[in-house]
Amino acid sequence: MIRFTYFILVFFALFLLQSGLSNAEERAQRLTLEQAKRIIIEKGARKAVETSFEDRWDQLLDAIATGVSSWLDIAVELGRHSDAEAAETLDAAMGEALQHSPREVLLRLDGKPFRPENVCGNCFADMGIQGATDFKGSIARQEAAVASVQDAALRDRRDRCLKLIRKNKQP
Q1: Integer Cα distance of 12 and 8 in angstroms
Q2: How many CB atoms lie within 10 A of CB 1?
Q3: pLDDT confidence bin for 78, thresholds 50/70/90
């Protein structure tokens, strides 16, 4: 009985150790803002989009979707040099970011490269990417977040964005 208990404890300890290493490895492999900036500086934005972010594109999209200003700046830089498929996923990430930082996203909807028509009412669930499935919830959160922007300088963009979101909500 003692041997069996000892075996179970050792097995459990090894399991926890392995789990901890997996989590540590995953954290070590997560794309950081500094890494993204370095890749763009070293490779150039076009090459970064074409090859350098290939195995980390999902991580990049998730980071942009947080709405953190520095990640939105990365999105703008990459968006200027993206092909159609990359541009579509960047648009969806910016749509996700609307839910978290609507003012910051609206500031960047100047057509260089992001346009309200491509971002407002767009989300990961709409494209079936990043494991997102709650389209209605995403759009409702987008609408509420954008409606909360009171900056007079962004009034026209806000209103245009809201119109597009509400149009996209229609069946």
Answers
A1: 6
A2: 5
A3: very high
